[in-house]
Amino acid sequence: MDFFIRKMTVEDIPQVQKVAKTSWNHTYDGIIPKDIQENFLKSAYNDEMMKRRIDQSFIYVSEVDGYIVGFANFSPVKEDGQMELGAIFLLPEYQGKGIGSALLHEGIKHAKDVSQVFINVEKDNKIGKAFYDAKGFKVLSEFEEDFDDHLLNTVRMVLKA
């Protein structure tokens, strides 16, 4: 399958929102109640927030046949070389095809002086956890966090770049 990675533009917002919703619903089904998922998606992926993310962070999208099938959102690199991978999501039918790896590598490749990439992943998110394990991320800590009155078990992981 042919895909290519590029920086996200404002025109991509509707497609990225669709990827976020579809993959969130798929990934967190049975982990996070549906209404909490929807509240989060409305606040974190509304048009205004997406424009802010484009301006203040680095978002790469993956296209197949002209359609966005995945994206990755990275924070700017801090002075100490640390960068946060805020999100990496693919439509379910495009998982396991190397697209997630390509998105991860793209973000690291374009980051200046990055030494460590951090990610928080929900402990029961088996797909995400397996992906990060396979890419060489190491567990730093586990903690509970209140996610809109729903307790999540979060795993903090790091990759030495």
From TrEMBL:
Q: Do you know which SUPFAM superfamilies this protein is assigned to?
A: Acyl-CoA N-acyltransferases (Nat) (SSF55729)
Matches recorded under InterPro entries:
Acyl_CoA_acyltransferase, GNAT_dom, MshD_Acetyltransferase
Matching PROSITE patterns: GNAT
Q: Which residues form the N-acetyltransferase domain?
A: 3-161
Q: Which Pfam families match?
A: Acetyltransf_1
For this protein, the record's CDD domains field holds: NAT_SF (cd04301)
This protein's name: GNAT family N-acetyltransferase
The source organism is Cytobacillus citreus
